[in-house]
From TrEMBL:
The keyword Cell inner membrane does not apply. Keywords: Signal. This is Rieske domain-containing protein. It comes from Zunongwangia atlantica 22II14-10F7. InterPro entries: Rieske_2Fe-2S_sf (IPR036922). SUPFAM superfamilies: ISP domain. It comes from the Bacteria. Residues 1-19 form the signal peptide. GO terms for molecular function: 2 iron, 2 sulfur cluster binding.
């Protein structure tokens, strides 16, 4: 009986502290949208993604909530983040964040985020940028949620 209680308590503690429950992943400001978008990095629009350290912002309807930024880490690893500020509810008066190098800035709140880590570097808020899945297949990159 003692062993059962010990393992039950241990199970509650472990699941109660899991990463999926720590708020950063359950952001009430950004809804989960289902999308899939494929880009060819050899096309003129996305060719700067052929070089490490470059990024491209995509503001097409249906790609993320307020747009998505894709960053080339090292030609093998690409990152993608939502361009809606994670620290306020998106609205039509505050479009997606704008890019300046590896920083995304919200023109409404002044919050600034690093697109390599997704972490906030200036401003007020408790949430990091929302990350999306990235799959590469040769010169094709697929971003999805």
């Amino acid at each position: 009986m003692k062993r059962f209680l010990f393992y039950s308590l241990l199970s509650i503690l472990i699941t109660g502290c899991s990463a999926s429950d720590d708020g950063r992943y359950n952001n009430p400001n950004l809804v989960d949208v289902n999308f899939q978008y494929r880009i060819n990095i050899e096309s003129a629009e996305f060719n700067q993604l052929q070089f490490p350290g470059n990024q491209v912002a995509i503001y097409y309807e249906g790609v993320g909530i307020g747009g998505v930024v894709v960053y080339n880490v090292n030609n093998d690893l690409y990152l993608a983040y939502e361009l809606s500020d994670p620290n306020h509810i998106p609205n039509p008066n505050c479009p997606g964040m704008t890019m300046n190098g590896i920083e995304a800035t919200c023109s409404c709140e002044g919050n600034v985020y690093n697109i390599v880590t997704g972490e906030q570097v200036e401003g007020d808020g408790e949430y990091a940028m929302k990350a999306y899945r990235v799959e590469t297949n040769g010169r094709l990159i697929t971003i999805s949620n």
